[in-house]
Amino acid sequence: MPEGISIFMFVVSGIMPFFMFRSIVTQIMNGTQANLALFAYKPVKPIHVFIARTLLEFCIYFVIFITVLFFAGWFFRFNVFPVHLLGVLFCIFLLMCSAFALGICFAIIWHFVESLRALLIYFSILVYWTSGIILPTWLTPRPLLDILYYNPLLHIFELLRFNFFENYPLQDEYSYFYAIFWILLVLFIGLFVYYYNRQALTAAKKE
């Protein structure tokens, strides 16, 4: 590990945001069927459930993240203070937005093709291994890293760690704008499809 970066802090700074990302996507997917009774009230729409679940999971995992950092700093004397706090918070915000956008798309797909739910497991594994969460990018072979560069989540996680650690070695020119572009694109697709299927999402599935 580079100087000033412990293995524990490297893992925590990737695992906790990833768990938040995965949980938001999962909770949004389950949101419509788990809250069908709420849709009896006309003011309540599926998008409200999506937003509520996103904010709830964000708050839960943010508190857990802060708690883990507190105990790591208090009891084990790790340096848990980010170098650029606003940059770290912005990256976490981008992860929340990307999970929200993907969650909407997956919720709609799963509603109409329930058998595709199993794909979420493989998607989570794919994100886990291609976003630099566990495997440091400086240990990744260059040909593979050039391919992974197109993954917008890799940009977010690398920029998060770059803002967290003082001597974090970025391997490429990672960009906020690239990640934001993909978030907006996926969000637009998700909201577009949601708009034309919002009534169907409130209907119970036929067994």
TrEMBL record:
It comes from the Bacteria. The chain crosses the membrane at residues 7-30, 50-76, 88-113, 119-140, 176-196. It comes from Campylobacter jejuni subsp. jejuni. GO terms for cellular component: membrane. It holds the Pfam family ABC2_membrane. It is a multi-pass membrane protein. Keywords: Membrane, Transmembrane, Transmembrane helix. InterPro entries: ABC2_TM. The lineage of its organism: Bacteria, Pseudomonadati, Campylobacterota, Epsilonproteobacteria, Campylobacterales. The gene is kpsM. This is Capsular polysaccharide ABC transporter, permease protein, KpsM.
